[in-house]
Write a structure and sequence with these properties.
295 residues; alpha/beta; 12 helices; globular
Length: 295
């Protein structure tokens, strides 16, 4: 993989679901098929075992098996990032080393959650992980889930580490993100689909998207139009996608649940529950409406 420093993992990344069989076991053949389809439909890279990939309920062995299966399916030219975050620094380091051995090109590392460490401890955690492997890190700033922000000042210091190269931004702080991008080489990837275009317009590298599991070409088309200089078309395409983004990500159901409902990709693992028939029918209507106006 030859990386562009401004976009070390490409522009259009999918936070890939983890398919399970009807019995709830890891479905590696379905994972291979889905990963291949995503790449064929415009995804530059894939993030495995993140939030959308149900990492809290998959075993270490399953994470490794999934990474190896997807690598086999998409080849060496597609960046694969492995989610290795946890609330325990030692455990995160172990997961990071296992992911590197299994063939990951990068690591998605979320802020330690629940214990709500102060910023000095957050910084030390990320540095420990970065020092433990030889592959680059994408820091995952999602305080709504972890309870702890990666403050802009902390990011400014972390950007000095040669293997900390990117941020998946779910902070909902466009000002803070813009300030960090202006002062560091960190590549910012939107983790909230409604901010994909705004963040990209102020210098973001791209996105890591759950919705891209379902409509990868339509999510990428927004960035393609912007890069072509047609900002009006980018805004139009973004506006068309908003209804599906809202239905999948802001309806009270996790994106994992809504993506699997639309893809018929097997069950979710408890404590998550599958979407009910009414919710699934509503998602399907919005999805079909988007296809009708963009095909």
């Amino acid at each position: 993989m030859t990386a562009n420093p401004a976009r070390p993992f490409g522009r259009a990344l999918c936070a890939m679901i983890t398919p399970f069989t009807p019995a709830g076991d890891l479905d590696l053949e379905a994972a291979r098929r889905h990963a291949s389809r995503l790449v064929a439909d415009g995804c530059d890279g894939l993030v495995l075992s993140g939030t959308t990939g149900e990492s809290p309920t998959t075993t270490d062995e399953e994470k490794t098996a999934l990474l190896r299966a997807v690598r086999e399916a998409v080849g060496d030219g597609v960046p694969l990032l492995a989610g290795v975050g946890s609330a325990d620094t030692r455990y995160t380091v172990r997961l990071a080393r296992e992911a590197e051995t299994a063939g990951a090109d990068g690591l998605l590392v979320v802020t330690p959650y629940y214990s709500r460490p102060p910023q000095a401890a957050v910084e030390a955690h990320f540095v420990r992980v970065a020092e433990a492997t030889g592959i680059p890190l994408m820091l995952y700033d999602i305080p709504g889930r972890t309870g702890t922000r990666i403050e802009p000042g902390t990011l400014l210091r972390l950007a000095e580490h040669p293997r900390i190269v990117a941020v998946k931004d779910c902070s909902y702080d466009l000002l803070g993100a813009t300030k960090v991008m202006a002062r560091t080489p960190l590549a910012y990837y939107s983790g909230c689909e409604e901010l994909n275009l705004p963040l990209y317009a102020v210098g973001g590298a791209g996105y890591v998207s759950t919705v891209a599991n379902v409509v990868p070409r339509r999510m990428r088309a927004v960035l393609d139009a912007f890069d072509a200089g047609d900002t009006a078309e980018a805004a139009r395409l973004n506006g068309l996608a908003v209804r599906l983004v809202e239905a999948m990500m802001c309806s009270g159901l996790p994106g994992t649940v809504t993506a699997k409902a639309l893809l018929d990709a097997g069950p979710v693992r408890e404590p998550l529950q599958p979407a009910g028939r009414e919710a699934t029918d509503g998602l399907r209507r919005v999805y079909e409406e988007l296809l009708a106006v963009t095909d």
